[in-house]
Amino acid sequence: MPDTSSAPPSRKGLILDLAAVITLILLAYLFWWRLLTPERINQQSLIEGDFSGQFVSFATYQAARMSQGQIPLWNPYNLGGHPFLADTQAAVFYPPRLITIALANLSSGGAPTPPMMYDWLQREMIAHSLLSSLLMYLFMRRLTKGAFYSPAAGMIGAIIFAYGGFMTGYPPLQLALMEACIWLPLAMLGIVEATRHPAVRWGWFGVSGIALALSLLAGHPQTALLFAYLTIGYLGWRVYTQRRPFLAFVIGTLLMVGIGAGIAAVQLLPSWEYLRLTTREGLSFVEKGNGFPLYDVLQMVFPGLFSQWSPLYISVIGLMLAGYLCWKHPNAAGYWFLALIAALGLSFGARSILYDIFYNFLPGFNLFREQERSAYLIAFCGAVLAGMGANYFLEDTWDEDLKRNYKVAFGGVIAPALGIGFTVFANWITEPSSESAQRFGLIAFSLFAAVLAAITLISVDNFRRLFARGAVVTALVAIELFSFSRMVNPNMESVPTQDRLAPSEMVRAVGKQQTSSLTLAPWRVDGVPENYGTAYGPQFSTADIRGTSPLRLASVDKLLRLNNPARLWEVFAVKYVISPNLELPVPSSIVAEAGDLRLHALDQPRPLARLVSKVWVEADDAAALGFLNEPAFDSANTVILPADPGVNFAPQIQGAVELIRFDPERIELKTQTDGSAILNLSLVYYPGWEATLDGAPAALLRADTAMSALVVPAGEHTVVLRFEPPSYTMGMLLSLMGIVITGGFLGVAFFIDRRKTAPAEPAAQG
User: Fold this and answer.
1) Which helix (H) or strand (E) holds 118?
2) Residue 177 DSSP SS3
3) For residues 536 and 135, what is the distance between their CA atoms, to the nearest angstrom?
4) CA 592, CA 401: separation in Å to the nearest integer?
5) What tens digit of pLDDT does each residue of 142-172 get?
6) CA-CA distance, 2 to 332, in Å (whole number)?
């Protein structure tokens, strides 16, 4: 344990903390400045893909709805319509997203365009990158409280966590993942503060619970699950090592999880309802057990050697500092080392028996795929180990025996590394290629960083000014990570955001056709890429039937797999098809052309709502899809239902349907028929849609495996469909109660804690 007698006085500590915060702000600007600069010649933006197709599209739609004072519960512009709020990655109630939406709406004077939202979401991402470093610094400072080099430990942990291979890899493009990650240091801070005194300070578990709630609301449940388990495990570790009653662990866990789930209930309940109906529900152990190949461990030392991103990379010097802590102070490494090893084993997925154990015995692990996301825990634990390692390393007295042992250990690592480098170099000489040249360059960079780090660490105790030691090591970490990112980071390219996501000629043509048709409801479209139907929907009426959301209803997904496109377009009420083909399987007219694409308008599209009297009863969805796929099936006059509706229908009926109102969560129609009929709607069947017939509740039926229908009697009637999911209503009520209860609990708990006086725990226990 470091000697704390030379700890800086509080005033000096405050000055150092202020300097650290300013430095972290400057580092965030330095890392992301090309996304922020107003100089067009230097501007970059995040590459298109998940960031644009998923998050920009969703945020643009949310901004448009909220600019009208509406909560976006349903999205009619992708997948034939899907529950927007319930799709976790929409993050509708995530507080920072609400701030971004508000600022974007204010700056645009209304609903922002996709390019504008692109810029605002990049700013949100940068703010979270900065916040991750600030929260990590705060946590590391409390974890090493009283140690002379605590500020340096905090800076090193913060820089590695915020700018290591994981947080600068794919998370900035998968924004929900990044935003769910960054609140972990705050939760850990709550655990440290709750258990830092002999008497448990219960209010701090509320802070951890709020951090968990923010992670849940950010929209990546798998990351929130990993977050929760690492935090609960750390609480258990501290309770065990401090010999506290087991009841403290139970109550603390219940407080944290209860507060987190309670505040986030408005997102959790609709999402849980949705998840059980999506394509993810039927995935097997093998399909969920994918993870890193075993050789990816080498990328902890040689980033970029095997893949585009290197999420296991925490810097060579960070790895050295973490190794020093585990070597010289294993008790301090304790929990973080064990958690890192467990996360590494879990990241291999089904290649490791550890995943089998987690899959079968820990709740939640059987719900998600892509186990390599456990790299999140590796990145966090590695940053903690490196920060604490720096603290001990700089405090320890370096005698000749210690230096000799360090040189031997370093030589044992560098020798095989040189061997790998020579092998790649020889491959480059014998078979020159840009790929082998890049690999050799990355290995050379890692070896140079390792040698420079070793020389610096061995000689750092020669610095007379003690604070200079910490500054030199911190600077070395930052230089290595920032240099590495410039070499391999593929996330940015030199395209200004104002040049992103401009509506294509096809999208403009769809909007023009929809406007000229003068219908209340937009005809559906097939062929808008990504989720851009959602991005352009409010402006150009691009109600697309497809989409790239990783979560989609299983029933809709099966319907989209029909190999009879004419029947697919009929069921989804498609009128416009974007295609390179000159002709379609059904009669159509080309109404616009751009490049090699053509916009076809179907000559006889099926309307959103129609009246039929022929019912085909088929309880088996696979068989029903088979009938729909058959060209001979009379789908123009027949609807497939899973059960007999119990109504006698005339062979022929005369009637009409008039659409009175079409909003995302409310559809109003008038029907007139001379006999009982089925009102067949091209509206995705989903819990929460409710129907009334002349003001009285009416039963919605599942039709054509994924759409909706209801029985209407003879005469004139008004049908109203509303999307008012009970899961949202209950979730909102629970969240409001959770916020009020949490506020009251924190007020009482911190008032009681302030009345307690007790000595704090020793420094840097981990």
Assistant:
1) helix 114-143
2) helix
3) 36
4) 79
5) 999 888 899 999 999 999 999 999 999 999 9
6) 11
